[in-house]
Amino acid sequence: MCFYWNFNIKFKKMKQIWMIIVVSLLATTISVSQTPFYKNGVTVKKMFLDYQSQNGGTLTKFNDYQHGYEIGFQRILSDKISINLPFRYGIVDSHLDSIDCLKKRVLSLDAALQYHFYKEARRITPYLLGGIGGVYENEGDFNLQIPLGLGFNVKVAPNAFINWQSEYRIGLKEERTNLQHGLGFIYFFGDKKESPLPEVIIEKDSDNDGIPDSLDLCPSIFGEKNLNGCPDTDGDGIANHLDKCPEIKGLEAFEGCPDTDGDGVSDNMDQCPNLAGLISNNGCPSVDKDGDGVNDSEDRCPDLSGPKENNGCPYSDADGDGIADKDDKCPNNYGIRIYNGCPDTDNDGIDDSRDKCPNTAGTVANDGCPEIKIEDKKTLEIAMKAVQFQTGSAVLKSESNAILNQIVDIMQRYRDFNMMISGHTDNVGSAELNQSLSEKRAKACYDFLVKNGISYSRLSH
């Protein structure tokens, strides 16, 4: 019979441990930080050893985690750096032929450096760690492991901390890589390390105006305190670097420039600085002989009224429909404004620029062309398939004349209807011969329709 310590903790216990961590963090309400006042400390932790997930197991299978303990020594080297020497003992799963019921005892001693992200008034101090450790197993060889990890300390007293640490331990022998997590306590002892007195820093003042360079907007030029160390040559209360007229006393509303004629346009922008004028006319009085709202100085047609966007000149209107050519979609055809200057010749509500049948009233759905009646469509579909030729030639059979006359009748009723004619043959004979015969048959139909009054421009083959 085998006897060994059973450290297995069920998943519920793992949840309880996590709850302890969260409650501990929330309970620490005093705004304190981990400060390196004490040099030496001891650590005591409960360890959770995960050998299985890195060697074929599952990371979240908490029931397979094995357990152990740690006691260690910690030395503070600076406010950022400390060295930790932890000794650990635990029991983990072993190989199948183990003499100790598939369990083996593991002892380790590490040397690890910790880098703390220390800040004054921080309650929780995180850190990174790295080092090397020797591991002894009662069923296995002595081996070395490299621990890399992270952790954090939560301050609960000036020299006491709750600690959580997780490590990824790289084994230098096969099947030795593992994860280890620890929850515990750190207690520091010894004389309290006093904080050094803050160093008094005298800031540089290059221009000797009583304002240090770090706060002086003009650090190399003697200036005034109320202007953040910058000079004001004209004494108008506006610093030179913000004053558009730095040598002439002006107004803040005009960025340090005056307005001599009081017309609301500063002198540096006023084309008539001594004569009151209009803001819209750059400070000059308005002269507009044709009364089109464009000053004569800018009006290219000062004697003809025209819009400002056309520099005071009237727009051209080639078709005389009252719509300027630039806005007229049909500038050479008299139209109406609702159609952007285009006419609607067939009065079907679709202007000629969009009407595919501009001379025949149609529908919007058919782009201005008349809808072909359903019976006419069926007639065309049947007729085109019913045209027959003498075998092996492009000569129309006599019965095809009546069919083609039906097509002529429909095309005369739909004057804007165009037709594509194509010929067909069977698959007897060579492809070249059949192609030539198809083209000749299409030409025969084409000639018949043209001969019977259908314009060749409405047909293609």
Number of helices: 4
Strand content: 15-25%
Gap from first CA to last CA: 102 Å
User: Major sheet: order of its strands?
Assistant: 1-2-3-4-5-6-7-8
Mean pLDDT: 82
Descriptive overview:
This protein is an alpha+beta fold and 461 residues long. The protein contains 4 helices and 10 strands, in the order αββββββββααβαβ. The strands form 2 sheets. The chain has an 8-stranded antiparallel barrel with strand order 1-2-3-4-5-6-7-8. Strand 5 and strand 6 form a beta hairpin. Helix 2 (374-386) packs antiparallel against helix 3 (400-413).
Concise overview:
The chain has 461 residues and is an alpha+beta fold. The chain is built from four helices and ten strands.
Structural features:
single chain, 461 residues, alpha+beta, two-stranded parallel sheet, 4 helices, flat, disordered N terminus
Draw up the topology in text.
Elements: H1 11-27, E1 40-50, E2 66-76, E3 81-93, E4 103-116, E5 124-137, E6 143-157, E7 160-171, E8 178-189, H2 374-386, H3 400-413, E9 419-420, H4 431-451, E10 459-460
